[in-house]
Amino acid sequence: MSFLKVEALARRYASSCPAVFENIHFGIERGEFVCILGHSGCGKTTILNVLAGLDEASGGHVFMDGREVRGPSLDRGVVFQSHALMPWMSTLANVEFGVRSRWPDWSREQVAAHATKYLEMVGLGHALHKKPAELSGGMKQRVGIARAFAIEPKMLLLDEPFGALDALTRGTIQDELLGIVQATQQTVFMITHDVDEAILLADKILLMSNGPQAKIAEIVEVTMPRSRTRASIHHDPQYYRIRNHLVVFLVERSKLYAGDAVEGHDPKHPPIVRPGLDAEDADTSNPIAA
Amino acid sequence: MNMTKQKPWLAPLLSLLILLLTLAAWHLATRPKEAAVIVDPEYAALVGGAAATGAKSAFPGPGEVGAKIWSHLKDPFYDKGTNDKGLGIQIGFSLARVLGGYLLAALVAIPLGFAIGMSPLIYRALDPFIQILKPISPLAWMPLALYTIKDSSISAIFVIFICSIWPMLINTAFGVASVRRDWLNVARTLEVSRLRTAFLVILPAAAPTIMTGMRISIGIAWLVIVAAEMLVGGTGIGYFVWNEWNNLSITNIFTAILLIGLVGMLLDTALAKLTRLVSYRE
């Protein structure tokens, strides 16, 4: 059984309306980085909130480490899209707030040292005593990441953490996140709209069809070696094949799954594809490229 | 905008000019006139010769008021019996009543406002009572308070309590109810207990709104105390004003009015400073 198991998850707002998403099945292994990609309105954030325990599904179950997820837990750290830092606390106090909740018996010095370590990890050692209002958007999001990592959760949930950042900042923080995740072997589930971000970070990409009645259409395995960097990733021939596959899905195929299932598509076992390993000429016929 | 930046002394200068013009107009209006009428000597003895003949208005000029203020400033705490106490003592009584009623109101309003803000059920259950009680003039409670409490000084404190509770209650409830969902979610994912969330997240998040309510309340309390003390009598700046009206001492009334304004301003400034202390920038 997978480390995280999602079974038949569904969400509907009224019994008369079609479900926003239904029949969502997937699993995440320990140490895996999984991205979920799909258009707005397919319920990605709701799925993440259900995994976090902040929201309840209308049907289905989530199991983590063999136990059903009921309500929020320190085992699952969350990085919010809007960073959600407490503006009256300093950077350090924001991270300490989490650390103290995780280890209530620790002394003040222990808490401060632990929080400082994680802030230094995201390159904010110089801004410990600044208030969030004095930080740039990228720095704020770094604090949010440090806060989530500092409680050393079994799993991290990231809700489009870089959505509000400019491209340059986003790239830098992606690299940092990649480094930290590789060093800590953290299990991560992340929402993104950005195809390149998904390829850079993920081991597996869940492709969601459009809502209503959104489902997982495909699971794309990123077959490139894990030691990727933003600077070198585009030299790998697999990169463009995977990228084309994702773009074609988002532009053309994501809407084909509306209503009844596409023939042969079993939402319980969505097809696992490895476009990176396809033959050289398989995808080049496609005009939508980088 | 630009004017005040380039010449920071301009606004104070204008203020001074307005003050001087007002004082001058006041002086001219109350200047002694030529005696014209012969009056009853008994009446003249009662109100003072000059006033009785119409040569001098009973309304004091700025010089007389200034002299009066100076005499009060020199000896603010004298006590020559029930009806003749220094202004410092009277203001002290008023401040004690205001702070007593106000702090009691804060003790009730802030926890209750928390409960209302956190629970939509409690909000809906209490809303009709709040809506009906809030617009009642605090002085309307006075007879009821005097009848039940039977102590005029505590009745005044009760009136202050009842008038200062509403802004604090409503602002606390609003501030607590509008704490950002994200911050509460952070606390939930960190498994922070409800009590710790209330003190470490909701209270600091709502503090600026709560303090704004407290600032409105202290202003209202200071407005109401004068009227309340006119009714209950005995001590306090409100009683002083009414007593000096009975003495027909307009100079004393003037002095008291200025003092009431000054103390009110100081109270407001103090609360504004406290509000700045708990404000945060997002």
UniProtKB/TrEMBL annotation, chain A:
One Pfam family, short name: ABC_tran
Cell location: Cell membrane
Membrane protein topology class: Peripheral membrane protein
A single GO molecular function term of this UniProt record: ATP binding
PROSITE patterns given in the database record: ABC_TRANSPORTER_1, ABC_TRANSPORTER_2
Annotated ABC transporter domain residues: 4-235
Keyword list, A-Z: ATP-binding, Cell membrane, Membrane, Nucleotide-binding, Transport
Region (Disordered): 261-290
SUPFAM superfamilies assigned: P-loop containing nucleoside triphosphate hydrolases
Predominant localisation class: membrane
NCBIfam families: ntrCD (TIGR01184)
Family: Belongs to the ABC transporter superfamily.
Name used for this protein in its record: ABC transporter ATP-binding protein
Organism: Uliginosibacterium aquaticum
Taxonomic placement: Bacteria, Pseudomonadati, Pseudomonadota, Betaproteobacteria, Rhodocyclales
